[in-house]
Amino acid sequence: MDLEEILRETRTVAIVGASPNPDRASHEIWTYLKAASDYELYLVNPTVDEIEGTPVYPSLADLPVAPDLVDVFRRREHLPGVLADTVAVGAKVLWLQLGLWDEQVARDGAAAGLRVVMDRCIKVDHARLLG
């Protein structure tokens, strides 16, 4: 899988599990991507209405666009549901952040036509390949 190709082709990113806490990885990655990329960023978290003035959507289905890439910050037991939502909105890439690995989700995602990236940090890869 060509990570550089994925990152270059991506235009819209949904961050599932976005946190208003600046100490959380999802917040740090959102801040980085806002500053270092041209991606349209969408934050998803059903328990938060906004983060630093940016609207937060309760689910992927509530986004005003179909994201190219869904970047996931959820516990492993939530991944099958996130996969189903990702497929339902027509995203192209499911990106599981560092520490997230699920072979069944990867197989199911690939069978549904998704490119699946597991156990990688989009910030690190973006900075390394495109920064």
UniProtKB/TrEMBL annotation:
<dbReference type="Pfam" id="PF13380">
    <property type="entry name" value="CoA_binding_2"/>
</dbReference>
<protein>
    <submittedName>
        <fullName>CoA-binding protein</fullName>
    </submittedName>
</protein>
<dbReference type="InterPro" id="IPR003781">
    <property type="entry name" value="CoA-bd"/>
</dbReference>
<dbReference type="InterPro" id="IPR036291">
    <property type="entry name" value="NAD(P)-bd_dom_sf"/>
</dbReference>
